[in-house]
Write a structure and sequence with these properties.
Blueprint lengths: L4 E7 L6 E7 L2 E4 L41 H10 L8 H11 L3 E5 L6 H11 L2 E4 L4 E2 L2 E4 L3 H14 L12 E4 L5 H10 L4 E4 L1 H8 L4 H4 L7 E5 L1 H5 L8 H9 L3 H10 L30 H9 L20 E6 L4 H10 L14 E5 L16 E12 L2 E6 L5 E2 L11 H14 L3 E6 L5 H10 L4 E3 L8 E6 L12 E5 L1 H4 L2 H8 L17 E8 L9 E2 H13 L10
Parallel strand pairs: 4-11, 4-12, 7-9, 7-10, 8-9, 10-11, 13-20, 15-21, 16-18, 16-19, 17-18, 19-20
Antiparallel strand pairs: 1-2, 3-5, 5-6, 13-14
Helix pairs in contact: 2-3, 6-10
Pfam family, one: DEAD
InterPro entries: DEAD/DEAH_box_helicase_dom (IPR011545), DEAD_box_RNA_helicases (IPR050547), Helicase_ATP-bd (IPR014001), P-loop_NTPase (IPR027417)
Protein name: RNA helicase
Length: 566
């Protein structure tokens, strides 16, 4: 497929000048960035060098992002369209150079630290793929867990690349999610192959099922594959899974894992190789979930790869560049790293042989030798409990941790009006300007919004026109990676909380870097969880829901603060 090298000339869209580029006979890679600059592109030496960052302008320019490898023209556009972003966050300062370098990456960083935005900046800074025929190809594929996060990427791209630069983003970024006809999305990919494709795993699998699905997504030639919110996409069982959890993982694989497995069947990665039991495990003292599993558990996990029906890592070929695999999440724990390194060998970190081809970046402090902190310290956490001392008469109180009794409330699929009354009370009491209510996935979004409006709360769906004060309402399953300017997040019901990992991502919707903050500075934020309490016959006792919340707070190292109730 790839044979002798040839020399051809790739014309710049804006400058109209021909730039000589050394390319493979089938695919050329030119640093063509018509969406960020009117200047002529720089040429790359060969296909492998497409992973090198474009050099900043002499002197580094006035923009801090130029020092990370982002082209000066894109930095200028960033300053013009998002002037409040003056300095990269710590996570961005680590992630951007890592993506621009020829290696695989796993990043764990706090929610709201700009991981997804850094991914977009780095991918826009990478060169385009130009085939020998002159047609462009897909350079990067970004897989996200929800339509909302995909739309957020598109909004960022349009902000960075306004219509005055490019009328249509189709040649730069395309989003493929359910909600639009499959054939229309496929036709757009065929007609205008974008630099970056962003999609959910279910829709990407549907595209791959087409006769030319692999071609239009560029599976055989793309340079970078990003799994944003990796743990949500792969849905791996915990450190000590039950037999049922292991069975569900093997038999009913998550769409994100199925997609990654199909890509790994045909593409080698930079750090891929033989599965090695210690891969992904840190040395030294580890804390909490990072503690290394016992020897017999590691051996079972290692041998389990034979029964997992997952593709083995392919060896790298000198005839074609490897695929860069980038995985990011606020909760990328040892289970994920062990799966990628020890069970599959797709992305191996913490090994001597992969120290130049993979990076493990931990910005949370959970690794050995750092001060642990899963959630940003700027977030205040509270838990309100809604008791029902008499039928239809809810009463709100702060959480207690006394002996538990079964939680009193309606079935999980029904909208809990008592909890919504408690939410309306807390909304008014806290003086919320911009809040987000996260409700269980089984609740009706429309019914919840209608019920809140009847209680006098200015509620609306995310994305709807609004004015302050406002309370946006969203199901908890769609909250991953959502970036909004908020001062309060309300988590409604124990079913929305689920567990400590899910709570981490829900709570991370607040205290995010935005127009009123920059660099490593975060605004203060408040997360209020509302759970059901006890019924009339168990007044004074703690419900099982608040006992669950106490355990989650303890696991995350969070001290919940009581709210002054009037």
């Amino acid at each position: 497929m790839f044979n002798r090298l040839c020399t051809r000339r790739v014309a710049s869209v804006f400058a109209g000048r021909a730039v000589p580029v050394r390319v493979h006979a089938r695919v050329a890679t030119a640093c063509v960035r018509p969406y960020v600059s009117h200047t002529s592109p720089q040429a790359t030496e060969d296909a492998v060098s497409t992973h090198a960052a474009a050099p900043p302008s002499p002197g580094g320019g006035r923009h801090a992002f130029a020092r990370l490898g982002i082209p000066q023209n894109l930095c200028t556009q960033l300053s013009r369209t998002l002037p409040y972003i003056k300095e990269p966050t710590h996570a961005q300062a680590e992630l951007i150079p890592a993506i621009l370098a020829p290696n695989d990456v796993i990043l764990r960083a706090h929610t709201g630290s700009g991981k997804s935005f850094a991914v977009l900046l780095a991918l826009l800074a990478k060169p385009r793929i130009i085939f020998r025929s002159g047609n462009a190809g897909v350079s990067a594929l970004v897989v996200v867990p929800s339509n909302e996060l995909a739309a957020q990427y598109l909004d960022w791209a349009r902000t960075l690349i306004p219509a005055s630069v490019v009328d249509s983003l189709d040649t730069v970024v395309q989003v493929v999610v359910r909600g639009e006809p499959l054939d229309e999305q496929a036709a757009r990919l065929r007609g205008k192959p974008p630099h970056i494709v962003i999609g959910t795993p279910t829709r990407l699998l549907e595209l791959l099922a087409l006769d030319d699905g692999s071609k239009i997504l560029g599976i055989g030639t793309l340079r970078t594959l990003v799994y944003d919110e990796t743990d949500a996409l792969l849905q791996l069982p915990g450190r000590f899974p039950t037999m049922r959890e292991r069975w569900r993982h093997d038999v009913h694989r998550a769409p994100g894992l199925d997609l990654l497995n199909r890509i790994m069947q045909v593409r080698p990665t930079f750090s891929g190789g033989d599965a090695y039991a210690p891969a992904g495990l840190e040395r030294g003292n580890r804390k909490g979930d990072e503690a290394r599993p016992p020897e017999h558990v590691r051996r079972v996990q290692y041998k389990g790869a034979e029964k997992s029906r997952l593709a083995p890592a392919l060896p790298r070929s000198p005839k074609s560049p490897p695929l860069q695999l980038v995985c990011t999440s606020a909760t990328a724990n040892s289970v994920l790293r062990h799966f990628l390194g020890a069970r599959t060998g797709w992305l191996r970190v913490m090994l001597r042989e992969t120290r130049m081809t993979s990076k493990w970046l931990d910005m949370t402090g959970l690794s050995a030798g750092r001060n642990a902190g899963i959630l940003p310290k700027e977030i205040t956490h509270s838990c309100l409990v809604v008791d029902e001392k008499a039928p239809g008469v809810p009463e709100v109180r702060n959480m207690c941790t006394a002996s538990g009794t079964p939680t009193h409330g309606p079935p999980e699929h029904q909208v809990d009006v008592a909890l919504l009354e408690g939410l309306a009370y807390a909304f008014a009491l806290q003086g919320v300007r911009r809040g987000l209510a996260l409700i269980p996935a089984r609740w009706s979004l429309a019914r919840t919004i209608d019920a809140l409006r009847e209680l006098g709360v200015p509620a609306c769906a995310v994305g709807a026109p609004s004015s302050e004060p406002v309370l946006f309402v969203l199901q908890d399953t769609s909250a991953r990676g959502l970036d909004m300017v908020l001062d309060h997040v309300f988590i409604v019901g124990a079913a929305a909380v689920r567990d400590a990992v899910h709570y981490t991502h829900l709570a991370g919707r607040v205290s995010r870097i935005g127009p009123h903050s920059s660099g490593a500075d975060r605004p203060a934020g408040h997360v209020v969880t509302l759970v059901r309490g006890v019924g009339p016959d168990a007044v004074g006792k703690a419900s099982s829901a608040e006992i669950k919340m106490a355990r989650i707070y303890d696991r995350l190292g969070v001290a919940p603060q009581p709210i002054q109730l009037q």
